[in-house]
């Protein structure tokens, strides 16, 4: 792999410093990748394939081969272990493929093409663009839940510190809290912190801070019903066990599923458990977007207008009452695709 990386870089006429800037890492690491003294991460391999225009599958196969050899060496039992691993991998891949429809797989393929293109434009990322899109996300996520602040009013509350006449204090706090929650999940992403129960409760605490302080960052202690839905969330005494299973499922599947599927599943599973007295929707969408950001995707911003909201709720209802998640997975994947297209349209100019 070291020769492949160096030859591809030189063919592109790039210096190690330039590749390092595009990857966002130290220049010395590029030299170590090329002389074989350091192995890139999986994420770095994905970016290198895009930057150096190397076939992704070719580079990934070489990277995996070298990782396997490094881990097992030339032990006498290595071949037997590889044979057993091969059987398990074939089973896992077959199971995942069977569980995804052709339509969904085609949509994921389109998303991956957009993601690879996005990776080549990362140097054009802008704080102001991110700030504007995050403002829109706050506006739309709150609008889904019934907040009546307009986009402009949301901007004035967050960035100008103004109070909007005729709007409740709760609506003001929902805007402020959501922006702070976005900042928090971005911190988790940038510092590569693992997503666990503590971080989930911290996100929820930010969402309800100053609104229902006694329940902020705490699982509910009463039974709840979801307005307009036939789904009945579990009894409060079951919630801690359901949440334990939720994080076990995440640990077992975060390396197996496509990131968009993983993000959508974590959203649907959390909002189905409905572990909090309030703020479940906003928290679930933030969890979904944390996973997307961690994997190099963009925020999937579900619109809060009537038609979009009804499509969102109906897809969720189907998943919650019948266990059929196809509609919801397709819905989230389509949103992510549209958001990727929009983001690329902005930064590529």
TrEMBL record:
<feature type="active site">
    <location>
        <position position="274"/>
    </location>
</feature>
<dbReference type="InterPro" id="IPR040198">
    <property type="entry name" value="Fido_containing"/>
</dbReference>
<dbReference type="Pfam" id="PF02661">
    <property type="entry name" value="Fic"/>
</dbReference>
<keyword id="KW-0547">Nucleotide-binding</keyword>
<dbReference type="Pfam" id="PF01381">
    <property type="entry name" value="HTH_3"/>
</dbReference>
<dbReference type="InterPro" id="IPR003812">
    <property type="entry name" value="Fido"/>
</dbReference>
<dbReference type="GO" id="GO:0003677">
    <property type="term" value="F:DNA binding"/>
</dbReference>
<feature type="domain" description="Fido">
    <location>
        <begin position="195"/>
        <end position="334"/>
    </location>
</feature>
<keyword id="KW-0067">ATP-binding</keyword>
<feature type="binding site">
    <location>
        <begin position="278"/>
        <end position="285"/>
    </location>
    <ligand>
        <name>ATP</name>
    </ligand>
</feature>
<dbReference type="InterPro" id="IPR036597">
    <property type="entry name" value="Fido-like_dom_sf"/>
</dbReference>
<feature type="site" description="Important for autoinhibition of adenylyltransferase activity">
    <location>
        <position position="145"/>
    </location>
</feature>
<dbReference type="GO" id="GO:0005524">
    <property type="term" value="F:ATP binding"/>
</dbReference>
<feature type="coiled-coil region">
    <location>
        <begin position="97"/>
        <end position="124"/>
    </location>
</feature>
<protein>
    <submittedName>
        <fullName>DNA-binding protein</fullName>
    </submittedName>
</protein>
<feature type="domain" description="HTH cro/C1-type">
    <location>
        <begin position="5"/>
        <end position="59"/>
    </location>
</feature>
<dbReference type="InterPro" id="IPR010982">
    <property type="entry name" value="Lambda_DNA-bd_dom_sf"/>
</dbReference>
<keyword id="KW-0175">Coiled coil</keyword>
<dbReference type="InterPro" id="IPR001387">
    <property type="entry name" value="Cro/C1-type_HTH"/>
</dbReference>
<feature type="binding site">
    <location>
        <begin position="312"/>
        <end position="313"/>
    </location>
    <ligand>
        <name>ATP</name>
    </ligand>
</feature>
<keyword id="KW-0238">DNA-binding</keyword>
